[in-house]
Specification:
Elements: E1 13-22, H1 29-44, E2 46-56, H2 67-80, E3 84-87, H3 93-103, E4 106-109, H4 110-121, H5 125-139, H6 143-153, H7 160-198, E5 203-209, H8 215-223, E6 240-246, E7 256-262, H9 272-277, H10 279-286, E8 290-296, H11 302-315, E9 323-328, H12 337-342, H13 351-361, E10 366-368, H14 377-391
Parallel strand pairs: 1-2, 1-3, 3-4, 5-7, 5-8, 8-9, 9-10
Antiparallel strand pairs: 6-7
Bound molecules: guanosine-5'-triphosphate and magnesium ion (MG).
Length: 397
Amino acid sequence: MKGQIFDTAIKPELAVLIAADLYSYRKGKCAEYLEELAFLALTAGAETVKIFTQKTDRPHSKTYLGQGKLEEVAAYIKENEIAVAIFDDELSPSQTRNLEDALVCKIIDRSMLILDIFAKNARTATAKTQVELARNEYLLPRLTRMWGHLDRQKGGIGQRGAGEKEIETDRRAIRHTISLLKDKLKDIDNQNQTRRKNRDAMKKVALVGYTNVGKSTIMNALTKAGVLTENKLFATLDSTARKVVFPNPDHSAMPITFILSDTVGFIRKLPHQLVESFKSTLDEVLDADLLLHVVDVSHQGFEDQMDVVKSTLDEIGAAQKPTLIVFNKIDNYNPNPTAEDIFEDTTIYDLDLLKQSWMAKENAPVVFISALKNENMDELKNKIIERFYKVNPKPTF
Ligand SMILES: Nc1nc2c(ncn2[C@@H]2O[C@H](COP(=O)(O)OP(=O)(O)OP(=O)(O)O)[C@@H](O)[C@H]2O)c(=O)[nH]1
Ligand SMILES: [Mg+2]
């Protein structure tokens, strides 16, 4: 909270979070979304000191919040020297401009926040290029706002012409950057395709799932790849591929070998510019023979997260892939109201019941594990093997 002494050299920026609590949301949904937004803010380096919500049909078209709520937020920001207001939706350029005027602090929307985290976490040339492209695409329609704002600050008269000329120059510069980045990504794409062709003879398995569910932890447990795992969002931005060798259950046969890849996590309202520019990374998913859809079963909103993953897979054209659902973090599982909804006839909401319910509910096979505590990892291995036999009646391992 404010006034706390931080032992890190960089002091986090103080932030307020703002969300429209839509009448269409089920109970508890807005709070869950805000918890995620606070986690995103923390990952980006901001400390949430206060949350504002407004019950509404839809966010106000000009100012996101209604007049009364806006004044309340403005007074709080002024009184508490808040540096940044973070909104749980993508704001239009004009909403951002109006909010800057009303709140007199930095205005960040959900898309910008996610882009910022991606920029912070990008390590390789590919990830950096992809993020840079997405940021420029996001920026292009917002340039007018930046110059328009400056014009008004300077009084406007006599500045307008110069401002517009500058906007045009900047727009041209950004368009040029975008086309250079696209060319660069095309080259990277071609190299990746060649690399993938070289492993065409091998079976491919890809880890997919919401961010922070434990994909990289599973990758490391199965391959000792040493991929960074962190209790932060979007720790992984690049796909890592490793060869995995399992002993064949039929001991006389050849060991089972496949390529396992770990890739970028998904999130609710992932900015479409990022989905677009991460296409080449997500090709790993399209190229896979089997998807391991990893779910954090200890997260209250895991069912919503599964829906987000399914619709993102649909968006990239991978919805029909053979899939094994891997419920992870069973060590951390706590019976919660979501489980209560599922098992309304019983008062025991233990893991076994959850397993039975999901096995019946999902068409795809499921497995429950803890990658961190190494629980049920053999079952996961067996299910992967079984799945291959099912996909290819005559396995080619
Ligand atoms: N309790 C518990 N924690 C786990 C388990 N598996 C992973 N974690 C923790 O969950 C956090 C996220 O793990 P990662 O493997 O980085 O998750 P990820 O899906 O790769 O996340 P991104 O790359 O950020 O999308 C880390 O703090 C892990 O230690 C598990 O089985 N149980
Ligand atoms: Mg990861």
